[in-house]
Protein: Riboflavin kinase
Organism: Lentithecium fluviatile CBS 122367
Amino acid sequence: MVRPDKPRDPIAGPDTVEPPFPLKLRGPVIKGFGRGSKELGIPTANIPLSGLSVGGHEDLESGIYYGYASLDHSTIPTLTTSSSIPSATNDTSLPTRSSNHAVADLEEPPTEPPSRPLTPSNTQPAAPKVYPTVLSIGYNPYYKNTQRSIEIHLLHSFNADFYGATLSLIILGHIRPEYDYMSKEALVEDIREDIRVTQRSLAREAYQRWAGDEWLFGEERKGQDGGIVPQTGGVAMCHMGN
Ligand SMILES: Cc1cc2nc3c(=O)[nH]c(=O)nc-3n(C[C@H](O)[C@H](O)[C@H](O)COP(=O)(O)O)c2cc1C
Ligand SMILES: Nc1ncnc2c1ncn2[C@@H]1O[C@H](COP(=O)(O)OP(=O)(O)O)[C@@H](O)[C@H]1O
């Protein structure tokens, strides 16, 4: 679908989070085509598509979505070799360094999670930071990909890549369909507007509270509330209505 020539809505979705949202995904950050940083100046962390079937959401409409994400850096392989980083493509070379500061004018600081009870020994590892996030699910029509992919841009400037980290994601709203574009510049301008729409949309109270959801702190991965969570080899995705 070619991008319609009309102004965009500044905010996406209703003032409360409504079904099918929230949608919860988790998976390791894998290598994509390397275009995000190099060609667009907007890095996008890819996670495997396999998890869409876990919660019965393989038919989730392609499009641009927003929500919150967190990273578990402890799953990054200590010795980075080409075989230790899975890839969404047939390219097995090591990823080149991403450009991480491309959208500095649009960035937001990570959200500190709400204060949590201290354990007597206070030995728990620090809770992960939560990042406002915009993502694309689909075939990237501008690039005419033949495989669907999940491409996630965290609204934060990182000092280093995080291939291999476990990314947990809560999708809270839909922004727009994927479009084809007349130029790379037009695609980049729309993605930058998606970032602004995400910032405004998440600023609403009913959305902000999801930044403290336990899914983002890995607790459901540890089985504490019986969520559907495979431990290895893919993405967990389930739809929880709390
Ligand atoms: C917020 C956002 C919106 C996007 N919208 C589109 C789109 O409308 N059309 C499209 O072809 N690709 C779109 N993309 C995907 C980019 O083309 C993709 O992230 C880029 O090709 C980098 O891919 P790579 O990580 O595999 O290198 C979007 C990506 C993001 C993060
Ligand atoms: N703000 C960010 N959002 C997403 N990924 C980022 C960000 N900053 C750095 N990265 C890193 O950049 C990588 C994505 O860069 P990109 O050029 O799109 O490559 P690829 O095609 O391999 O995904 C991510 O996997 C991650 O390690």
Summary: Residues 106 and 195 are 7 Å apart (CA to CA). The chain has one domain: 23-239. Strands lie at 23-28, 45-47, 63-72, 130-138, 149-154, 166-176, 236-239. The domain at 23-239 is CATH 2.40.30.30 (Elongation Factor Tu (Ef-tu); domain 3).
